[in-house]
Amino acid sequence: MAQSTGLFLIALLLLRADSGGMTKIKETEAQRTRRRWITFGETVAVLALLISAASFWDAHQDHVRNAPAPKVATAPVALVLTASVADDGQRLDLHAAHADQVIETQTLYFPASVRSASVETTGNARIEAGWFEDGLVKAAKAAKPAVHRIAVGIETSYTTDGTPHTDRAVYDIGYTLHSRFLRGSSVQLEGISLVARRVGPDLRARVDARWHAQAPG
Fold first, then answer.
1. CA gap 95, 107 in Å, rounded
2. Which of 130, 168, 183, 217 is deepest in the core (most CB within 10 A)?
3. Residue of 197, 191, 188, 187 lying closest to 172 (CA atoms)
4. In this structure, are residues 138 and 178 in contact, taking their beta carbons and an 8 Å threshold?
């Protein structure tokens, strides 16, 4: 009887030991399964991160390709005035050679011996013979038809694409002096030609120097 009881106890212990081993095996398999799921989840997260980064890069490249080219800063185009004869040579209408330049105001300086006061215009750029005709006739002392030139300094305020600029330049006015019976002489304007650009504040002095060099008469 004691022997049978001992055998029973031994079998019971072996069964418990076997059950413990099975439990450990099951626990080990569960841990492995959890690790596999963790590894799979990490892989999915990494793939999602890579896909997101690739999408961001593609969007950035599309933005770069479609972005407008940066504007290259360029120096403003120089102002050059042209003239058209009007009113039978009694007036020159002034225009900017470039269509995108808009003349706002002008101050004109004639040789001091011809006209001491300057002339200002606003929105109607022009040169009128009447501004300096009397002084020119006296200075030239001419009584027969002749072609002459007279210097004029023009300070122009103008805009280009809405940006304001100022130009100071010396021009020559071409004119013809005509003798009129019993009425002295008259001046007929012919046009203008550029002499010097980017003149400093001594615009009147440059005009006087040019006039003396022309030696009218």
1. 15
2. 168
3. 191
4. no
Is 126 a residue whose pLDDT tops 80? yes
Predicted TM-score (pTM) of this structure:
0.64
**CB of 149 within 8 A of CB of 166?**
no
Listed in order, strand segments (DSSP E) in 40-162 are 81-86, 91-96, 101-109, 119-122, 126-128, 146-160
Burial class of residue 133 (count of CB atoms within 10 Å of its CB; 0-12, 13-18, 19+): buried
DSSP β-bridge partners for residue 147? 176
Q: Where are the domains of the chain?
A: 1-67, 81-214
Type of residue at 199: V
- The beta strands (E) that lie in 30-145 are given as 81-86, 91-96, 101-109, 119-122, 126-128
Q: Out of 76-80, 81-85, 146-150, 190-194, which region has the weakest mean confidence (pLDDT)?
A: 146-150
Tokens 């069964």: give the residue.
Answer: 15
